[in-house]
Amino acid sequence: MVLTKKGDLVEEERELLTNVSQGNVEEVERLLKLKNVRINCLDEHGMSPLMHAAYKGRANVCEVLLKHAADVNVNEHEHGYTTLMFAGLSGNKKITRMMLDAGAKTDMVNSVGRTAAQMAAFVGQHECVTIINNYFPRERLEYYTHPQGLETEPKLPPELADQLHRILLATNLNPVKLVQLVQADSALQDPSALTRCVRVLNSVSEHGMKEAEPCETLAIRSHYLGCILNRCCLHLQEKGSLTTLIKGFLKGREGDGFPLMQERFIRDAIKRFPRPEAGLLQQLVRTIAPIEMGHEPTALSVLTQAVTGQVGMLDAEVCATCGEYGALCRCSACKRVVYCGTSCQKLHWFTHKLLCASLNAERLREQEHNLHKNAGLEAVEKKEDVGKTVIIDPVDEPNAVKEESDGKTKENQENQNTRESTGSDTLAGTRAEEISQKVVDGFG
Ligand SMILES: [Zn+2]
Ligand SMILES: [Zn+2]
């Protein structure tokens, strides 16, 4: 391969870099066909086209460049930044995964000794940090797709490797989300396929503990995923579908809606980790054991933080159903729970409807209290800010989302919320009445 020199670019290569940055996929494809355009050409700072695309968050362009065999580990940047570092800095999860899939090395450091994960953490891109730290290369599953030793058949049928890899890359350990992942995959709706995946996960877990430098996070994470898949397998054998398992994980206990079965399942899965000497396991047990069921932190949050390194994002809303970050839909009746969308809201409604009215009453009481306590501007600021999220109405399962009965459009509603959050007391009063009406409607 001809070594490319920094800044030594022909006209078309400069054109390529411009189009890469602007995200003009078609132009990029056209230019890459030209003989004098080199896929790994470098600009004055030692940045390749792929680095530019990653930094600018141009996922489509990254795809095209990788298809043309762009080198993901070019390391000529003036400050030692790698393509993966640029992906992490951009905060684009898809691109970060794409670079890892293309073989990006995670342990390379830049001129100030930072890895890609550390760079991403430095600029607050925590989701990218989690993706990098929890990456499991697809090749490591290849081993299981060939018979080893005396085996007559491989542990993992090759056609299940992609499915299992997707599960292994999951960074959201919420049991509901994981069961949903299984449910969404037709190849995994078969108990015997799940049994084989569980066996591989247990083996990955065992290997994690046997390595020269035991990787306890990988060991515990794959053991936990194995527990989830095993539970799915048993449930499928018994009920033929996973819907009731998901509902079981969501069902809140009487009084406070705490999902007891979910908590018990996670605590039990942790306890069943077969290597009691593991330091991380002991730390987990020590943290969780004294916590009473229903108190914070939950076993899920302790486990997530310990094995994925994910730190709670203070300003991020978490879906009450599946635990995904960035949930933007708020229950219109109580405004106390958020969801990723109506499908998650519908799933949760069977249990949330038992609490929705009392949550709303509590919210209104707090609002009232704040109004009395703090006069003027301060009171307005203290009111719950609901302007940022889309409001969705409670749904009566199993029907679709309730239609707006009074013909009010979402836009109107959003305007109203904005007015409320910046707004006048009289408006807030009207809104409260509307909400109580909606709670009534919601119960149908
Ligand atoms: Zn969700
Ligand atoms: Zn509600």
UniProtKB/TrEMBL annotation:
InterPro entries reported for this sequence: Ankyrin-MYND_dom_contain_2 (IPR052452), Ankyrin_rpt (IPR002110), Ankyrin_rpt-contain_sf (IPR036770), Znf_MYND (IPR002893)
Region (Disordered): 388-444
Extent of Basic and acidic residues compositional bias: 399-413
Any one annotated GO CC term: cilium
Subcellular locations according to the entry: Cell projection, Cilium
ANK repeats: 45-77, 79-111
Compositional bias segments (type: Polar residues): 414-427
Chief location category: other
Keywords in alphabetical order: ANK repeat, Cell projection, Cilium, Metal-binding, Repeat, Zinc, Zinc-finger
Span of domain MYND-type: 319-356
SMART domains in UniProt: ANK
Coiled coil: none
Pfam families linked to this entry: Ank_2 (PF12796), zf-MYND (PF01753)
Single GO MF descriptor: zinc ion binding
PANTHER family, A to Z: ANKYRIN REPEAT AND MYND DOMAIN-CONTAINING PROTEIN 2
Designated name of the protein: Ankyrin repeat and MYND domain containing 2a
Originating organism: Eptatretus burgeri
